[in-house]
Amino acid sequence: MRFCSGAISARAKRSAWSSTACCSAVSSKDEGDGRFTRSTGVCGIDSSRRGVARVLTLKSEWYSLFAVRQARNLLPASTPAAAPQRRTREQRKLDRHAAILAAARAAFAQKGFAGASIIEIARACGIADGTVYKYFTSKQDLLFHVMRQFYEGLIADVEAGMARQSTLSARLRYLVRRQIEAFIEDEDLCRLFIREVRTADDYPDSPLHDLNRRYTSIVVRILESGITAGEVRPDIKPRLVRDILYGSIEHIAWKAVSRGGRLRIDQTTDQLLGIVLHGIAPRPETVRRVVARMK
Description:
Pfam families: TetR_C_24, TetR_N. This is TetR/AcrR family transcriptional regulator. Keywords: DNA-binding, Transcription, Transcription regulation. The chain has twelve helices and two strands, in the order αββααααααααααα. Helix content is about 75%, strand content about 5%. By secondary structure, it is mostly helical. The chain has helices spanning about 5-25, 45-75, 85-115, 120-125, 130, 140-165, 170-185, 185-195, 205-230, 240-260, 265-280, 285-295, and strands at about 25-30, 35-40. The protein has a two-stranded antiparallel sheet with strand order 1-2. It folds into three domains: about 1-25 and about 45-70; about 90-135, Homeodomain-like (Arc Repressor Mutant, subunit A, Orthogonal Bundle), CATH 1.10.10; about 140-295, Tetracycline Repressor, domain 2 (Orthogonal Bundle).
């Protein structure tokens, strides 16, 4: 930063020179006797004293202006220059939060919830174990955030995919296929959920249970819309179909995953969906009534 004091110093110099000249004019040496004589200005004020006072005042003003200009140049202001530093700090926090989550997910998937420890999760991130607790209150809290990240990604994917489908069967097919893929893509995390999370005594009242219900409620909404549109039998219980669908997917996928087998996704999806669609389809007389009502 450069100081912009040129204008100030020039002004001060001109004013000081003017005042000094004035002082010299009113204070002169008597060549006859070698003594200094003073002349009195307007209203009897001592002109030499007035000139000196003026110089001192100008010097004081100059230093004050210089100090203000210096402060403006040096002191950190609340300008956009300070914003990147705040953003950098916030970004570092977000990056560390994401790193801890990723390390926890890997640890839980490999060793299970009971086998994983905060110490090894912190070590994987290159931080002290106490730092983890600045972001998460406990290992249980870490597990919740890991599973929430998994569910929220899956929910967003399923809802976006179904929005592109125009029929009931196409929406259900997308949902079933995506659920099977999730079991294969996140095998270790699904194993953790089935073996440790869902079997815990406090699971029914836990936030993780709420996440699971939020995800599985998607198929309930599809079936309820199908009933309203006459595409699904009115006596069908959407929650019962939900349990049949997800229970079957879990059983089929878990069997393949636990035994190291290869699951044919498209074939499994078509067979399972064929059974469900046949069971929920309107009976012929119901179809006739719907068609007659539309006419």
